[in-house]
Amino acid sequence: MEHLTFDYPAQRAVTTRAHVGVVGSGDLEVLLSPSDPAASLAAHVVVRTSVDGYGHIWKSVLDRFFTRYDGAAQIEINDFGATPGVVALRLAEAVEAAEEGDDA
């Protein structure tokens, strides 16, 4: 089991939570929540993965994601062997779910 952390600059506060995906059988879950309001605007990502030795792949996927996403959020990713495409899909789903929650 590997535990990775990444931090990215952000431009805007996230105000709602989102939970997408399920851990199990080659999938993963993403939990997105607002950052600590007292902290500077940043996104903090924690990845817990059952597959060791792929930190560079996680970094590439997250670097690409954060070129488009500027929300200050705490993001937890619990992985059970998902492919990079599934990771990108779940991250996009979490952002969409959080943004829909803002509209409610």
UniProtKB/TrEMBL annotation:
<keyword id="KW-0963">Cytoplasm</keyword>
<protein>
    <recommendedName>
        <fullName>Malonate decarboxylase acyl carrier protein</fullName>
    </recommendedName>
</protein>
<dbReference type="Pfam" id="PF06857">
    <property type="entry name" value="ACP"/>
</dbReference>
<feature type="modified residue" description="O-(phosphoribosyl dephospho-coenzyme A)serine">
    <location>
        <position position="25"/>
    </location>
</feature>
<dbReference type="GO" id="GO:0005737">
    <property type="term" value="C:cytoplasm"/>
</dbReference>
<dbReference type="InterPro" id="IPR009662">
    <property type="entry name" value="Malonate_deCO2ase_dsu"/>
</dbReference>
<keyword id="KW-0597">Phosphoprotein</keyword>
<dbReference type="InterPro" id="IPR023439">
    <property type="entry name" value="Mal_deCO2ase/Cit_lyase_ACP"/>
</dbReference>
